[in-house]
Amino acid sequence: MKALKIITLTIVFVLLAGMSLASEMGISSGHNLDELWAKAQADYDLSGEDAVLLLESRHVTWDGEGALATRVHRVVWVGTSVGIRGYADLRIPWNTATSQLDVELLRTWRDGRWWPDESVISETAVVQTLPYAMNLADDYTSMRETMLLHDGVELPCIMETAYTITEKGLPGAGDLFVMPQRDPSVRTEFKLTFQGETDPQFEILNADALPTFHDGPGSVVSWSMDNVPALLIPLTGAPAAYEPAVVWSTWTDWPLLRDHWRGLFDEAAVLDAALTDSVQAWIEDAPSPWSRVRTVVDQVNKYVRGVHYPDSFWTFQPRTAVRTWETAYGHPLDRAVLTAALLRSAGYEVTPIFVGKGNRFPGDTIPRLNGLGNIHLSIKGDPAGLYDPDRGTLSGQAPLIGLPLWRTDQYVEPFLGNSPWPHRLEVSVTLEPGEDGFWKGTGQFEGSGVFCPQGDMAGMGDGARDYLAEVIGTVIPAATLNRSNPEIFHQHQVIFGFGLDVEKPEVETSGRTRLVVGAPAHGLMSRAAGVHLYDESRGSPVMLPAPMEQRVKIRVKTGADGVVNLPAAVSIVNDAGEFTVKTTEQDGWITVERELKLNADTYPAEMWPQLRALLLEDADPVHGTILMD
Question: Does residue 5 surpass a pLDDT of 90?
Answer without folding.
Answer: no
